[in-house]
Amino acid sequence: MNRTGRLATSSGSNPAAARELVPEVRHPTVTRKVTQSNIRTMTDGDENGGEIQRASDVGSADAPPIEEKPYKIIFEANKCFGAGKCAEVSGNWEMSLASGIAKPNTYFIDEADLDHNVRAAEICPAKKDEGCIHVIDRRTDEEIAPDPHGDGTLSVDW
């Protein structure tokens, strides 16, 4: 195979037949350069130099009312390595065949969906078993799971 994932063919072979035998596989990668200015716009440039300090500092611009969906998920997709344990225990999580990592169907959840999302966060083996799925109580701004520090502080690696 060559670098593009296609079967290398000689001048005498049939490239179309080779593609039928070995389909091209592409793994889309989404990258975003995180800069201090990006962080400041997400946090309104608070007195902490624009650093994210609370769970409410991220992803709440288009959130439903807290009364409807009192919990939110913060997912560190860049730390996910595709073990799939979250998708095994929670219907909210699906594995993407294209990217090889999981993703939630929704980031804002109610009481009915809390238990299985907490389980997904607790079972995630990423980050040396600290997980890359974080379930946050939007009413108190505390991390419910995985909460490796045991004090409700956000355990995200920015």
UniProtKB/TrEMBL annotation:
Composition skew (Polar residues), residue ranges: 1-14
Spans annotated as Disordered: 1-26, 38-65
Protein name: Ferredoxin
Source organism of this protein record: Natrialba asiatica (strain ATCC 700177 / DSM 12278 / JCM 9576 / FERM P-10747 / NBRC 102637 / 172P1)
